[in-house]
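Backbone-to-sequence.
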């Protein structure tokens, strides 16, 4: 997780622009992790970054896309 405050005048983000990342595999535990992050970690104006993590032996693009669509509506 990046708390901001990057140095220099480059691509750093300011202290009020935080990014909160959560790994998600659509399991009940990972869904609770997303809920927890929203309720306890993320603040108004933060960027919530969801990282879809799946085993390479079970990755099927169409299934993952369908799960994401059903979970988020987009």
């Amino acid at each position: 997780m990046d708390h901001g405050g990057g140095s220099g005048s480059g691509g750093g983000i300011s202290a009020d622009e935080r990014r909160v990342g959560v790994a998600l595999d659509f399991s009940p535990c990972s869904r609770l992790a997303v809920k927890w992050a929203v309720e306890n970690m993320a603040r108004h104006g933060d960027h919530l970054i969801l990282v879809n993590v799946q085993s390479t032996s079970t990755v099927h693009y169409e299934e993952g896309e369908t799960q994401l669509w059903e979970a988020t509506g987009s």
